[in-house]
Each structure stands twice: as C-alpha cells, then as structure tokens.
Amino acid sequence: MNKKTAVISGIVIVILLLVFGTREWVNGNQGSTLEKEKMNRIVSAKYPGDILSTELTNREDKRQYKTVIKSEQGVYVIWSDAVSGEILDMNRTEDEESQRERITKDEAEKIAAKHGEVKSSEFNEENKVYLVRVQKEGKTYSLEINGTTGSINSKSEVESEDEPAQPNTKITEGKAKQIALKEVKGTVTDIELDDEDGVIVYEVEIETKTKEAQVIINAFSGEVSSVTMETKDSD
C-alpha cells in the first residue's frame, strides 16, 4: 500500500507541476504585446481593405490596437486586444479624414507664409478648412487650406477694397484699341472703362500730329458710339 500510495503521489505531483507550469507559461505570454505588423496581418486576414493607420492605445484599462481600414464599403475603426489579437469592436466612421488630427492654426499659417505675409486666418468648421489672407508684392491673396492634410485647396487674388473690381467685358482692352485706331489713325495715349447711362464703354484717347480724339466703344458689342475730335493747341 505504501508503495502504491507513493506512486500515486508521484503522479499527482507531476500533474500539478505540468498544470502550474503551463499556467505560468500562458500568463507570461498573455503579458506580451503583439507587434504592430502582426496585428495588421490579423486584421487583414479577417477584413480585406487598405490599412490607413494602426496605433497602440489604453482603452477601457486594457492595451488595445486601434486600426483604421478603408474598404469598398467605407472606412472602419477596429479595436483589437493588443495581447491576444482578438477583435473586440468594429464600427464605421464617416470618412478617412475624420480619423486624422487637424493641423493647428500655427501650422496652417506657416504653410500660407510661403505665399506671402500672413494678415489673418480663421478655421471654417463647416468645411474643415483654414481661410488665410496673405500679402505679397502689394497684392492680397486668399488661401483655402485643408484642415487635415495641410494642402492648399485654392488661392485667389482679393480685390482691394478701395478699388472696385473691373466688370467682365466681351471686348478686351487690346481689341478696343484696334477698333479705335481704325476710326482715327494715331497713337493711343489713354484708355479706360466708364459707365455711360448704364452702358459700359471704353473711352480711348488718340493723338495725331494736329488733333486729339476720343473714341467711345461699347465694351460688349465693340460698336463705336462716338468719335470726338479737337484741334491741338499750338505753342
């Protein structure tokens, strides 16, 4: 009986050693965080698409990987256990850019500064863009900068507030000069747009050897409205 008891006791001890040893090995492995590349492989195997980003976080007091993936159905955020690789949560987000951090106002102004001296800047919450005004070589420009990527969506010159914008005309200034010179042979000394009774016209001043002429041309049709000639004063 003693021999039999000793054999049984020996078997029990071996089993206990195996159980506790295995538990310690498992616990040790449970404390190791998976590498980002391995986590990406796990996610890619389950969810086809392009991985936009993967970051290690502390969510719900647990180490979790936050993976953003873009598929044909949309952009998704996947939360995974950083140790076991188990997928814990998955939800669809609005778009790719919503997962990226917004650039700061200072960063937007540094981007704009490459195009001139920054005069003002503000963030448009609705369109998620920075609107920045800069000045360069006496001109003012308005820049629209993507609030996420920092890329410039548009750049346009701003008309000076004390100088009204010139109206769009079908007849160019060069064409108006040609029309005027067909009426009066000479040298164009001045040309400007004017409003005559609601009609936009070119006033072209031409000088000849003996006379000074003014030719009025419709800025849209090119029709000559009038030609006025005056004799030059002789000194």
From TrEMBL:
Pfam family, one: PepSY
Domain of life assignment: Bacteria
Listed transmembrane segments: none
Region described as Disordered: 147-169
Listed InterPro entries: PepSY (IPR025711)
Ranges of residues in domain PepSY: 42-90, 102-152, 170-226
Protein name: Membrane protein YkoI
Organism: Fictibacillus halophilus
Lineage, highest ranks first: Bacteria, Bacillati, Bacillota, Bacilli, Bacillales
